[in-house]
Write a structure and sequence with these properties.
With about 500 residues, this protein is mainly alpha-helical. The protein folds into 3 domains: about 350 residues, no CATH class; about 30 residues, no CATH class; about 100 residues, no CATH class. Helices cover about 65% and strands about 5% of the residues.
């Protein structure tokens, strides 16, 4: 009876600790998140949620239907300040991820302090925190990955196959959110083959796991089947599901440049700017000693390698976001390393130091923009975006009180003439479209972009531009390559108009 009471008390303590971590992380990220419209892909997410669009237009691999279903559901449950509520969805999802990491380590190591260190390491890591402050899908990848690992840990500790059933369901949900989860799927598939060969898992178990995985992945499967039926093209649809509309070469890339390697290491340093990073190696050294099963440690290491290698040789501009799952596994190992340190001599003192070191990241992020400017480190951008200091924007993860996108949009709509056309790139178009449609501002102005255009926009290309310029004022947000059509740059002059440019006469006239 005493043992049962002790187990119950321990369970209640874990639940209470989980809720406390979840609440604290939620407060941090809700305070940190952007208060309204945002730039770039995150703005596209707001745009898609506003239009109840679970597929998008960039290929099935970029559809992320599970995230959009959650965000759209929240939009209807809590109607109000649109934009901010979509941002809060990611903030809460990120808090769940941090709490899940805490729970994983607490259940595994049986100690609160190492679990707290691991949770703090992930929660305050730059890229994860940055993606908790704006609407994005990557932190949901981590929240579900950690839930998978909790199920895997429980199976390793108890041998109860029900945890593998739940793992299958959660991984199906993860696939419905992001194709990054397919890397974890590969690891679990190999493990199941081994367990089946050792008679630990039977045929009926495998059949139920497949069924639960299919149920979890239904949102994505629905989009795939619908596209196959509408297009009649199986192979193109499957290519879209794996690579998106035009990212096959990036996904399959096997080459590296010195610039990519340098940038990757700079991002990693920014995410772990504390002495606690050394605990990663302590965790690796002691991993097999504390793992409930040797295969559990093997799965963790395989996940670390797969996620890290995938992100390291990826070539898209925002590939830094794809390191988040590997940062998650690294944070777990740092928690394991902390457990080895605090259980030794001078454990209490070292434990306090390790927790304190976790917070060093915050002053580092505060100082980073000024240091980068002083050292002359280029921001890497070919143009300046109005109301945005790129050093602050990229080096500080929080977005508290940042209303630059909204100010930009309101200035444009306040200055352009009736029936104007504004060509915007994929970074600046989302706040313009969201402000126009959500606030019903200046419907006469037509925003035209690759990611979406205002309702009733005219056809805008090199064949129609001459007539459009004759009848309407035409503007571009940025008159530089990559952000403006080449036929405009080659043939026309540009006149500054506030923070944007008006397309002028043909060159030579």
């Amino acid at each position: 009876m005493a043992k049962a009471n002790n187990n119950l008390a321990a369970s209640d303590n874990i639940k209470t600790s989980y809720v406390v971590v979840l609440f604290a992380a939620s407060v941090l990220y809700i305070v940190s998140c952007a208060p309204g419209p945002v730039w770039q892909d995150s703005g596209v997410i707001q745009y898609r949620v506003f239009h109840n669009d679970i597929e998008g237009r960039l290929g099935l691999a970029l559809s992320h239907p599970l995230f959009y279903m959650l965000a759209i559901g929240v939009k209807y449950i809590f109607p109000g300040g649109f934009g901010y509520e979509v941002n809060i969805v990611t903030a809460v999802i990120s808090a769940v991820a941090v709490a899940n990491l805490f729970l994983l380590l607490r259940l595994w190591l049986g100690s609160t302090l190492p679990a707290l260190v691991g949770a703090l390491t992930l929660g305050l890591s730059h890229t994860f925190w940055r993606h908790a402050a704006i609407p994005e899908t990557y932190n949901l990848v981590v929240a579900l990955l950690l839930l998978e690992l909790i199920m895997l840990l429980q199976y390793a500790k108890t041998g109860r196959v029900v945890y593998l059933y739940l793992l299958s369901l959660v991984n199906g949900l993860a696939i419905a959110n992001h194709m990054l989860a397919s890397l974890a799927f590969i690891c679990y598939l190999v493990l199941l083959v081994v367990l089946t060969a050792k008679k630990k898992v039977g045929g009926k178990d495998l059949a139920l796991m497949v069924l639960l995985w299919v149920i979890g992945a239904l949102p994505y499967e629905y989009l795939i089947v619908r596209n196959i039926l509408e297009s009649g093209d199986l192979w193109s649809t499957m290519a879209s599901a794996v690579f998106g509309a035009s990212w096959r070469s990036d996904v399959l890339n096997v080459s590296l440049s010195a610039r990519i390697v340098k940038e990757n290491f700079m991002w990693m340093a920014l995410n772990f700017p504390t002495p606690n990073a050394l605990l990663l190696f302590v965790g690796l050294w002691g991993l097999y000693k504390v793992s409930p099963k040797r295969w559990f440690a093997n799965v963790l290491l395989a996940l670390l390698v797969l996620f890290f290698v995938f992100a390291f040789r990826y070539t898209i501009v925002d590939r830094y976001a794809f390191f988040i799952p590997s940062y998650c596994i690294a944070s777990i190992l740092i928690g394991v390393g902390a457990s080895r340190v605090v259980n030794g001599k001078h454990g209490k003192l070292l434990g306090c130091l390790v927790v304190a070191f976790a917070f060093v990241a915050v002053p580092v992020y505060m100082a980073a923009p000024a240091v980068a400017k002083k050292l002359g480190i280029a921001s890497g951008r070919a143009r300046e975006i109005p109301y945005r200091d790129d050093y602050v924007y990229f080096l500080r993860p929080w977005r508290t009180g940042y209303i630059g996108p909204e100010k930009f949009a309101e200035e444009i709509f306040g200055m352009v003439e009736p029936d104007a056309i504004v060509y915007a790139d994929d970074t600046t178009a989302p706040p313009l479209l969201n402000t126009q449609q959500i606030k019903r501002m200046r419907p006469d102005v037509k925003i035209i972009s690759y990611v979406g255009s205002s309702e009733g926009s005219p056809e805008f290309n090199e064949h129609t531009i001459g007539e459009l310029l004759t009848n309407r004022p035409v503007y571009v947000v940025s008159a530089v390559q990559r952000y403006c059509p080449e036929y405009l740059l080659e043939r026309y002059s540009f006149v500054p108009a506030g923070t944007i440019w008006r397309v002028g006469d043909r060159k030579g006239e």
